[in-house]
Every structure is written in C-alpha cells, then in structure tokens.
Design a protein that fits this description.
homodimer, Nucleotidyltransferase, domain 5, five-stranded mixed sheet, 36% helix, 2 domains
Chain lengths: 312, 312
C-alpha cells in the first residue's frame, strides 16, 4: 500500500497544502484562504478540514498517510509549542497535539522560515549541504538554520531569526520588533526601499531613481544592473549589512552554504557578489570559502520542508 | 568488568589527561609538558604514550577502555579532521585515525573550546541545558555551541568561534586573526587591558588605574568593584561588545543558557550584570530571558568534555 504525507504551510493570507509521496515528490498542491475572523480562531480547524477533503478526493485511507508537517508564522519549539503567530491572534498552544487530535494523524510542526530552510536543504539549492542557512529577503528578513539535516529550532523556537541581528549601532528608527538597527531594516525589500529614499534625500546624483514615485527593491536592483551609481551604492549598503550578519552566523555555525531566498533574491548574481564582497573580509580564514546560492523552490520551499518533517 | 575512558586535552604547553569511570567521575588527572620541538611533531605520540603509561599503572586491560576523547587547539570537524593546530605546526591529518592506530583504542576528537563547552554542559554550569553556549574569556575569546547535547563543530570545525565575530566597524588595529574589530579585541583579558590603556591615554579621571604600570583585566575588574569610574567604563565597554555578540548568537541558535568561562570570568557578578545590560536590548523579545552563568569546571572543562565524547 503506497504511503503519503501532507505539507501544510499556514500563512496570514493563505493555507498552502501539498500532497507528497514517500520519496518527497509533490503530487498535488492547493491554496486555501486563511479565515482571519476572530484572530484566526478557525485556522487550525480549516487546515484540518482541507487535509481531510484532499485525502478523501484522492481516495486515500488514513492509514496511508504517514503524517502532516505544518509550518507556522511564529516561534515553534521542537516539541510543537507555539508561543504566538504573526498576523493572527493565536498562541500559547501545542500545534502538534491540537492538529493531531483534529486529524487523527501524526503531526510535526516548525516555524515557517525554518521549514523553508529544511525544504531548500532537502529538495532545493541546499541539497547536499547537511549544514546550511537559508536567508529569505522578503517584506522582512527571515532565516532558518539546518544542522546535520535538522532544523535548529532553539529553546523557545526563535532559532534562525537572522533578520533581527543587530548590524547598525547608529540607527534611530525602530524595527518592527522594537529594537534598533536590525538586519531587516536594511536587507528586506522594505528596508532596501527605505535606504533608497534616504539616499535620494541626501543626493540624487542624476540617478535613474530620482524621478520615481514608488521606489521598491526591484527597481533599485534593476537600475544597479544598468550601472546606475546611486542604485549600486544602495545595493552595496544593503549587502554590506547582509555580509556582516552572515559572517557572524558563520562564526557561530560554520555552515557549508548560505542559500538566499525571498522576492529580493530574484536579483540574482549582483546580490550574491555584493554579499560575498562584504562577507569575506569579515570572517576568519577558515570560514571564507562558503557557497552562496539563490534558492530554487520559491514559495513551495515551506511545504517541501513540512513534508520533510515527516519523511526524515 | 568495570569500564573507563580517557579525556585528553592537548594544549600548546601541557597535555592534560583525565581517567573517568563510566558515569563520568574523574578518578585521576595528570599533566605532562607538551614537547614543542620540531613543530610539535611528537605531540600525538607523547599523548599516546602517556595514556598507555596511566593505563598500565592502573592495571587496566585495553578492553576496559571505552575510548579516548581528545581536545585540540584548532579546528576539528566532526569526522576528526584537523586543519591546523594553534601554536603547533601540525595540521592536515585525521586525529581520530592517527591516535586510534597509536593506542589501539577508539578515539573521538573536538576543538578545545568546543569540548570545554561540552564539559560544562555535562558536568558544570550548563547542566540541564541541552542547548547552551560557552564563552571563554582568557588570553583570547573562545566559544563552543552545544545543540541538543552535541557540539556544533561545523563543516570545517570552526563552529563556535565567537571571539571573531565583528563587533566594532571602526577598529584600526588588526586582531590576531587578521580581521578588524573582533570581539576578542575587547573582551579577552588582553583586550580589556588594551581598552584600559586606551582609556587612560584619553583621560585618567583620577582613576586608581592611572598610576599602575602593568594593567591587566583583573585589576580593571577589581577597581570597578571598588567603584572606580574609569574602570567601570572599561568593564562596561568590554561587556557591551560581549552583550551584542551574544545577542547575535542568540538570534541564530536560541540557546537556553550562556556560560562564561576563562580567567576573566572570575570577576563574577559584575561581569554577568554588565553583559546582560547590553544583551537584553539587542535581542528579540522571545530571546531576552536567558540564563547567564559563570562556568564551574575551570581548566578541567576540556577533559570532562573529552570524556563526554566517548560516554554519550
């Protein structure tokens, strides 16, 4: 009898569910809207119902399902305890126990950025690297650390929260987390746009960015690729903070590879080369020679990683 | 038949060997001089001979020895490969294979700071914390990261090299490692003495330190405890860098506890309170509540950790 598992990535706007075979091939993928009414109180039940719906549609017995891997936006420790969920009011419960009793299936859970790291390590660009770090550059900066093929969840589930490493001692504006000078303030899509606005206030240098109303990270990278001096300076500044932060990560974990994901990573080579430019001078000799790669699974990294929580 | 193991801490000046029973009780401890002639080419053979000598003296059969754990001053990856040894010219060999063929015993090895971390986690102040970080403040700043009770050696054996995290972007003097602005330049005994000399050049403020010829870290802490304003500023500066670096470590690993060892840690509470003062504002809310403890095994942490490599 063939065996399967589900990967379920619960986000603030959508619940993405993948059905995987034993070897980790994705057979089906669905996205459902997240019901955010009453602080998202129905989110877990909805996810359980969607799983049941897909299982029945596919004609699978419950015995054929090895388990359900779940990713959540918030700290999840390695026993499944969720302290809080970003953008949803839920928190203070054990997701593995709750969803297991709802579905009658084995459930394993992890933080969304951490399961994405596991996904990239298993089926994406991190393949072959037992020790690797995923950095996602999106609206914020997320991260996941994989050590010996497993997620480093940490004692309260905040392992891999690379976006909130202090990188600028002089910052006057607060980060979303309440601290000052976090990597996320410079290397996220939002952060890069902010750096651009600040740079333009000081000096527009006949930049292509000067007459743009809606400056975003993509535009900054596009103009940098065209040789726009100011855009290049902004890219370099964002990557300086990234290089320094990843140098610190390397001093702690000594991974084989850094995989860069999220929307900003679409910039590609220019991003990698500028990160390496600032990474290399800021790590010990033994750590200089690391792989820097662009992630390959996109938004599916999470459901792959969720499946991996079961298929390991 | 009772079983035993050896913990062997190889340093630039001494080879310390402990004999342990199965439960990790240290039954005997010896220190031999490290023969540094010809780049320390005889160090491994000497260590093997000392082990054999102790084994025979104790009347133990080779079959009673579960194995030998070895700690070395240099990067050791988790397969026993040693790229270089500090203060000795050796490098580029597999310590586990070499010493195993010399002794006829099972050999496991690790970096000296990493095995010290494992020792503190097993029998010292890290007891009960599966995820913990040891920071040793001595001539340099060393570190070891323990995740789920095991050393994070990293891909080239440079895991836990916390002393070389960049903490000061404005440093003009090079660290021993060749980089600029490493934690070690401010938080080691040498680094604290340097901060003191720099502070005195700028402003002696009627400090007790002003008329001292040989300023060292102990003196700085002693005077800080007596309320000397300048000494307190120096302590605070060293601990600011420590707090910031450990905040970065926490964002990556989310350990339960930080254990502070090495000569400087004898300063005790004043050190802990100043580190926490700078750690807390620089980590995410979820990470603020960590234990900060002074190590308890002193120079024996290494041999305990070496024994633990065998007795796990």
């Amino acid at each position: 009898m063939d065996k399967y598992c589900f990967g379920v990535d619960i986000g603030g706007t959508g619940i993405k569910i993948g059905l995987f075979d034993r070897e980790g091939n994705m057979l089906d993928k669905r996205v459902f809207a997240t019901r955010r009414t009453e602080n998202g109180k129905d989110v877990l039940k909805d996810a359980a119902d969607f799983i049941e719906k897909i299982r029945k549609e596919k004609g699978l017995d419950r015995e054929q399902i090895l388990g359900v891997g779940v990713g959540l936006p918030g700290p999840v420790n390695d026993r499944g305890y969720v302290s809080e969920m970003a953008n949803l009011g839920l928190g203070g419960f054990n997701i593995e126990e709750e969803m297991s009793s709802m579905t009658g299936l084995k459930v394993k859970a992890g933080n969304d950025a951490n399961v994405a790291a596991l996904g990239e390590q298993w089926k994406g660009k991190g393949k072959g690297f037992d020790n690797m770090v995923l950095v996602t550059l999106g609206t914020g900066v997320g991260g996941g650390v994989i050590h010996k093929g497993r997620i480093v969840a940490g004692s309260v589930g905040a392992g891999g929260e690379i976006g909130h490493i202090l990188v600028n001692y002089d910052e006057k504006e607060a980060c979303g987390c309440g601290k000052y000078g976090c990597l996320e303030q410079y290397a996220s899509a939002t952060g890069i746009a902010r750096l651009a606005r600040q740079a333009l206030e000081k000096n527009s240098k006949d930049s292509l960015l000067a007459d743009k109303e809606d400056i975003n990270a993509k535009l900054v990278f596009d103009y940098a690729k065209q040789g726009d001096e100011l855009a290049l300076e902004i890219v370099d500044e964002a990557c300086r903070y990234l290089g320094i932060a990843l140098a610190g990560v390397a001093q702690v974990m000594d991974p084989q590879a850094f995989v860069i994901g999220g929307g900003v990573s679409k910039a590609g080579d220019i991003l990698i080369s500028h990160i390496k430019k600032h990474y290399i001078p800021n790590v010990m000799n033994a750590l200089k020679d690391k792989e820097f790669l662009i992630a390959s699974l996109g938004n599916d990294a999470g459901i792959y990683g969720c499946a991996r929580l079961i298929l390991n």
